[in-house]
Amino acid sequence: MTLSGQVLKGRVFDENYNFLNGATIYNSTLKKSIISDSLGEFEIISKKGENKYTISFVGFKAKVLNIKFENEDFIETEVVLKSDESLEEVVVSGTLRSVSKLNSTIPIKLYKAGFFKANPTPSIFEAIENINGIRTQLNCNVCNTGDIHINGQDGANTMVLIDGLPIVSGLSTVYGLTGIPQSLIEQIEIIKGPSSTLYGSEAIGGIINLITKVPEKVSPLSVESFSSSWGEINTDLGVKFLIGDKTNLLGINHFLYQNPIDKNNDGFTDLTLQNRISIFNKLGGKKNNIAFRYFYEDRWGGQTNWDRSQRGKDDVYGESIYTNRVEVFGKYLYNDNLFFQYSFNQHYQDSYYGVLSFDAKQTIGFLQTVYNFKIRKSLYTLGLSYRYTGYDDNTPATLKKENTHLPGVFIQNEIIKDPEKSLLLGLRYDYNSNYGDVITPRINFKNSNKEKNSTLRMGFGSGYRIVNVFTEDHAALTGARDVFFSENLSPEKSWNLNLNYVKDYYTKRGQIFKIDSSIFRTRFSNRIIPDYDSNPNQIVYSNLTGIVISQGGSIDFLGRISNNLDFQIGLTFIDTYIKENNKKSIPYLTEKFSGSYKMVYYNNFIKLKFDITGNILGPMKLPLLSALDPRPDYSPTFNILNLQATKKVSDFEFFIGVKNLFNFKPPLNSIARAFDPFDKQVIFDNSGRPVVNENNPFGLTFDPTYMFYSNQGIRYFFGLRYVIKN
């Protein structure tokens, strides 16, 4: 290869002086780039005077050279790139110890904070819908409450942790999920499948562990704010400062939406109006980390002419919810082997669903001691925990305050035969003051090849969950149907088997591809499934006498073509059915398949980053009021596509984009009899069933629970980020 004019010639090596084939050499002065050959050699055209070059290679830190040409025809140089240690991913959720994700016996999905910047959202609840196998489910057309489904399982089976502590549970799963701002999160770790051995009740379907930022490692000041064409405004502020010799992180998030919109012309707000603030404070230290969060939200949805003077009245329908929440949590490191964790949170909800009042208060305290020690090739973890839950509400089902004490002990032994193989055995015992003894075992195995680019993981374990219908199932609160318990509910139990295989591929040009595939099968017993069909005016709750099977497979395909282009595609297939009395049926709101995709491209010439994100959701069975109900009994397959462009100017980042480009929206008649929300025009027979007549040809009652996705449709957004570096 011969170039005329001034030329920079060179060779690119790694730290061990191996040739790097496919490194990118970019002359930003002339906006020219070239790729190194199989011997790491390159020649790139330059100009007389100053030239600035950036040399980069996937998995290595980029290097910048400033070279001045005077009268030389060419200049020769050697470039040594250092490996990017920041690519080493560390996880804690699988074993309560910090381990490399690559060496973890438990299959864990890890997502850094940067992953979610491709599709900015005001909270974690909306952000994680772009993760394969994870689906955010909206449960009400009016107040837009929701939960998070893992591999098609109910949202109540998903345990949400903050720094490994059970902060978001029970009552807070209804509205507390929207109060977690993205700006606080360093990374998110996801385990699909029961994790009750380490985390106890509620981890029956999997966990989502939100790891907050370390105060010492954040920027002194960060600001992010964006607004949508619907009038939503989200603002995040992060400030780092010293209190004595301790580093303090203060984070404030405010979300505001006060613009009633009714594009489907049903007389109801398409999106719930919200005004919420979250204040987060974390104090760092070598031994002790302690964090505090306060959350307040005022939200309402309903008929567009509703105001607070109609709260609890039957002239104009509205659902109004005030939420106050306080959290304190932390970790004390006694020494390298022993640490203590603690948390306390109090959640108060003052709400009206039409004329139905629901006031509830929940207090949760948690203490845990964990001791790690090693005997030969075995790593042991011994834990003692205690959890107190106090719950009270004003429903007939709660005659007095419920106090639950849950002491527990767990032990796990991770046997590391060699760097490639490990076996993990775990056992947990809990004593629930209301339900007695609970034992949950698990076993996991990992086998990697010597190059560690191929890993097989297998897991088998059990889980259990204590159910509180009013804190977990929003349909029980709408007031559209009466709630009926046919028996005293027993804890749900599950057994899970999963296989996970990960394979990495590296090309000679430095490209990286990864295939991450899994198959899973979960068998539930004592499953609590709401019965919407027996009586259109009731929801009947009982333990299933049969079983529920949830099985399927998933595959993620990731690729990094260059430092400028990477992509991720995921697919999950789910087969879930209820088997009772030798009959099979399909549960509601369980997708048959889902997919997600993400592509990031950075253009060196115009200094713009482009993000494409989206997800595809297959059909789901939907709850109808009767056989005459004209609404579709299955949702359609739909695709949500989002686009974003980001431009960095000095310490500022400006971003603009569009969400839901294809403008998908649920059916216009999703709310049954929206014109008569208090059923004043419905005639009922002696059994309480609506009578079919000229005014009610389908025999329906008011029903806002028929929902599977947001009514918003297409919308545009614009925002900025400002960060002061350390």
How is this structure best summarized?
The protein is built from five helices and 41 strands. It has 726 residues and is an all-beta fold. It starts with 6 loop residues before the first strand and ends with a strand.
Question: Topology of this protein?
Answer:
Blueprint: E1 7-13, E2 24-27, E3 32-35, E4 41-45, E5 49-56, E6 63-69, E7 74-80, E8 90-91, E9 99-100, E10 109-112, H1 113-116, H2 124-127, E11 134-138, E12 146-150, E13 158-162, E14 165-168, H3 172-175, E15 185-192, H4 196-199, E16 206-212, E17 221-228, E18 233-243, E19 246-257, E20 273-283, E21 288-302, E22 318-333, E23 338-353, E24 356-375, E25 378-393, E26 402-418, E27 421-432, E28 436-448, E29 454-465, H5 469-472, E30 482-485, E31 492-506, E32 512-525, E33 538-541, E34 547-562, E35 565-580, E36 583-585, E37 593-603, E38 608-617, E39 638-649, E40 652-659, E41 715-724
Parallel strand pairs: 1-7, 13-16, 30-33
Antiparallel strand pairs: 1-4, 2-3, 2-5, 5-6, 8-9, 10-15, 11-12, 13-14, 15-16, 17-18, 17-41, 18-19, 19-20, 20-21, 21-22, 22-23, 23-24, 24-25, 25-26, 26-27, 27-28, 28-29, 29-31, 31-32, 32-34, 34-35, 35-36, 35-37, 37-38, 38-39, 39-40, 40-41
Q: How large is the radius of gyration? A: 28 Å
- Strand count: 41
Average pLDDT level:
87
The amount of helix comes to under 10%
Please report the distance between the alpha carbons of the first and last residues.
43 Å
Helices, by number, come to 5
CATH superfamily of the largest domain: TonB-dependent receptor, beta-barrel domain
By CATH reckoning, the class of the largest domain would read Mainly Beta
CATH topology (level 3) name of the largest domain: Maltoporin, Chain A
Number of domains: 3
Which overall shape is indicated by the principal axes computed on the Cα atoms? Answer: globular
DSSP strand content: over 45%
Structural class, please? mainly beta
Biggest sheet layout: 22 strands, antiparallel, barrel
Low-confidence stretches: none
